[in-house]
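Lab notebook: predicted structure, single chain.

Context: the supervisor wants predicted structures on file for every construct in the current expression panel, including those that have not yet been purified. This is the next one on the list. No modifications to the sequence; it matches the entry in the shared construct table.
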Amino acid sequence: MPSEKFESPIPSDAVQRRLSEFVPGSDKLALELAFALRRSVQKVDAALGRFLHSDALTPGRWQVLVVLWSRDAPISQSEIVDALEVSRATVSGLIDTLRSEGHVTTIVDPEDRRKTSVTLTDTARKMTARLIKKNASRLRDEFASLNEDDLRQILHILRKATL
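Prediction complete. Output recorded below exactly as produced.
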């Protein structure tokens, strides 16, 4: 089992001391959690960025590809918005880029131009499947200090969080 590696406190000791003087304990914990989650998200995004760089993808575009890959039929942009829990504008930008790169095709509903369906190209479907396998293994390596029970507990807690 790998040795546990802990980084400096999040936020720093100086920030924690000042927060202790300013907010009650449970509020301070909530702030510390926000800092820790933010650092974790940044590290995961940085790792994914390194992994996806050779395919000229970003973590956001890759997430869209994975959502589309999970379906065998075109899906609406609003379904992607719901799946990723991001804004419609964010998804529109990601789809526009993926379309210009040849990864997706879009079909505008002739009766309601506000409705657009999106599907993966065959090449993008194969690339996405390859990247899912490759990046799952790479991410597991990134989380090497955590065993499967740790990972399950973190997932459980994150799913339970109500942000």
